[in-house]
Write a structure and sequence with these properties.
Blueprint lengths: L1 E10 L6 H20 L2 E9 L3 H9 L4 H18 L6 E4 L3 H16 L3 E11 L4 E3 L17 E10 L1 H13 L4 E3 L1 H13 L4 E2 L1 E2 L7 E2 L2 E6 L1 H6 L1 H4 L15 E5 L3 H14 L7 E5 L2 E3 L14 H18 L8 E3 L3 H29 L13 H8 L3 H21 L2 H7 L1 H22 L4 H12 L14
Helix pairs in contact: 1-10, 2-3, 5-6, 5-9, 6-9, 10-11, 11-13, 11-15, 12-13, 13-15, 14-15, 15-16
The chain binds 5'-O-[(L-methionyl)-sulphamoyl]adenosine.
Length: 468
């Protein structure tokens, strides 16, 4: 089976933080699980480089938007490499392949009579890269960025959303476009009911963007430009049968409207099927506060990798709260959790089991054939309940640890060698089975465990997660 999964493409106005890492890691876990099942898997991520927000950030850094984007895009790539994220492709919206695809797509929208010329009079928040209504303001400010939006009067080309909105609503309510979790589906249907206005596909006063092919006074609106990455990366306008639709698109709740409504509407207008599934995860705060540069509480995923290793960082980021809900991260708890679940948990269990087998049974145990796939576990993963799937594996290791304690295996090996051998073999086989489930989450640790317990002679080895 083929499986195509995407993350949002992140703005290059600043370096990556753990919010970006959260979505990208989740996609990596799901992609790895599919690869391990033998699916023909394609995992796309990338960077969103056009628009006023990026141009402003570049200006503040005294660099051209392109030079600035080049630098920040590299920071995203290296952060993902440090976290052990294995994407199939990384698309940058300033690449010629993307620009060509965007130009082609807009031509199709125009030909299909989905666009019209008009004037936009209203407010724009560059932080959001979005048009904003008077109603949405709080004390005259953008509620997200706490900044006064710009008053804009300019010519724009508009997309006839009204023509496609009912159809998008039907796709979502019938689950032909599955939107999860249920709260996100409700929100999307609420937006359809409320009736969104037509949106701009181009801007007049933004120079850092892709020129509109038939109207050089305009550049493509950055959100339209960005959404198209999901098809341009697969070769649009030459899409092979397996290249589209995406099977799963992951996004944070901040960008639900663009992905649940605008994007499928654009696809319908261009004669393409909508994505199969959109899963919208929650937002997290840090110690009760919104993560922001001005508060100085932004967590760099590279710092977590330095402290806890790639697998440790992956574990800490993915295990904080249910995928699909909001949550709060308490940074001072990271160390405690690392020690409890990884150092004293999985790491210690693996090393004490290997040690008992090495010392008492010459490094050998009675190996069983790998078990049939665990349906319950697969269901958690395919339902995007990745935190629960991860927890079930970690608690599985915990159960084995308890077994060693309860059976006092260190005594049993002296008192009843046969019995001890049987129990230890069971534990070792279970460890192998759990390591296979752990592989998409903590790939390095899982591979080490599998190697260690598949060897002819098992050795205790170095501690996998040294205590902090
Ligand atoms: N460039 C647009 C997306 C275009 S996709 C066609 C954009 N970029 S962004 O850099 O702002 O990234 C937003 C995404 O980053 C969120 O949807 C989410 O995936 C992730 N997160 C950013 N901050 C986050 C949290 N505090 N918590 C969880 N996820 C967060 O929007």
């Amino acid at each position: 089976m083929k499986f195509y999964i995407t993350t949002p493409i992140y703005y290059v106005n600043a370096k990556p933080h753990i919010g970006h890492a959260y979505t990208t890691l989740a996609a990596d876990v799901i992609a790895r699980a599919h690869k391990l099942k033998g699916d023909d898997t394609f995992f796309l991520t990338g960077t969103d480089e056009h628009g006023a927000k990026v141009a402003e950030a570049a200006g503040l850094a005294g660099k051209s938007p392109q030079a600035f984007s080049d630098e920040i895009a590299e920071l995203f790539k290296s952060a993902w490499a440090n976290l052990g994220i294995e994407y199939s492709d990384f698309i940058r919206t300033t690449e010629p392949r993307h620009e060509a695809g965007v130009t082609a797509f807009l031509g199709v929208l125009k030909k299909n009579n989905a666009l019209y010329e008009g004037e936009y009079r209203g407010l724009y928040c560059t932080g959001c890269e979005n048009f904003i209504t008077e109603k949405e303001l709080v004390d005259g400010l953008c509620p997200v960025h706490k900044k006064k939006p710009q008053e804009v009067v300019e010519k724009n080309w508009f997309f006839k959303l009204s023509k496609y909105l009912a159809q998008v609503g039907e796709l979502i309510s019938s689950d032909k476009l599955k939107v999860g979790p249920n709260s996100a589906k409700k929100e999307a249907l609420g937006l359809v009911r409320q009736g969104l206005e037509d949106f701009s596909v181009s801007r007049e006063k933004v120079k850092w963007g892709i020129p509109l092919p038939w109207d050089e006074s305009q550049t493509v609106y950055v959100w339209v430009d960005a959404l198209l990455n999901y098809v341009t990366a697969r070769g649009y306008p030459q899409l092979s049968k397996t290249a589209w639709p995406a099977d799963l698109q992951l996004v944070g709740k901040d960008i639900l409207k663009f992905h649940a409504i605008y994007w499928p509407a654009m696809l319908l207008a261009a004669g393409l099927p909508p994505q199969r599934e959109l899963f919208v995860h929650g937002y997290f705060s840090i110690d009760g506060q919104k993560m922001s540069k001005s508060l100085g509480n932004v967590i760099d995923p590279n710092d977590l990798v330095k402290e806890y290793g790639a697998d440790g960082a992956r574990y800490l980021i993915l295990s904080q709260f249910p995928f699909g809900q909001d949550g709060d991260i308490k940074v001072e708890k990271f160390k405690e959790q690392f020690n409890a679940d990884l150092a004293n948990g999985i790491g210690n269990l693996v090393s004490r089991t290997a040690n008992l087998i090495e010392k008492n049974f010459d490094g050998a145990f009675d190996k069983k054939e790998p078990q049939a796939p665990d349906e319950g576990f697969d269901a958690l993963l395919s339902g995007n309940r990745i935190d629960e799937a991860l927890k079930s594996v970690v608690s599985g290791f915990g159960e084995l640890d308890k077994k060693i304690d309860e059976q006092k295996l260190w005594n049993l090996v002296k008192e009843n060698k046969n019995q001890a051998n049987k129990i230890l073999s069971d534990i070792a086989n279970e460890i192998l089975a759990l390591a296979r489930k752990l592989a998409p989450f903590l790939p390095v640790a899982a591979e080490k465990i599998i190697k260690q317990f598949s060897a002819k002679k098992i050795k205790k080895g170095e501690p996998m997660f040294p205590r902090k």
